[in-house]
Design brief:
two-stranded antiparallel sheet; 2 strands; alpha+beta; 76 residues
């Protein structure tokens, strides 16, 4: 079973994607956010295409192969 909350292999960006803060950064499902934004659940606004790209990238970081056309993958 794959732990989808595992962000150990996700890259940390240079700034919070919600507010632009440069310190106290963490990764939440392949989105870099600062501790303040994570605490109050402020997440970056992404287009549907960006959201899809993030989901596919997160799957790759977890070692999950997902078919971008069908959404089928090996989550087991």
């Amino acid at each position: 079973m794959v732990n989808l909350d595992d962000t150990r292999h996700c890259p940390v960006g240079p700034e919070c994607e919600s507010c632009g803060r440069l310190d106290e950064l963490a990764v939440v499902l392949c989105m870099t956010v600062c501790n303040a934004c994570e605490l109050i659940a402020v997440h970056p606004v992404l287009s549907p295409a960006e959201e899809t790209a993030r989901v596919l990238a997160h799957g790759q970081h977890l070692g999950v192969e997902v078919d971008p056309m069908t959404g089928e993958g090996n989550l087991a």
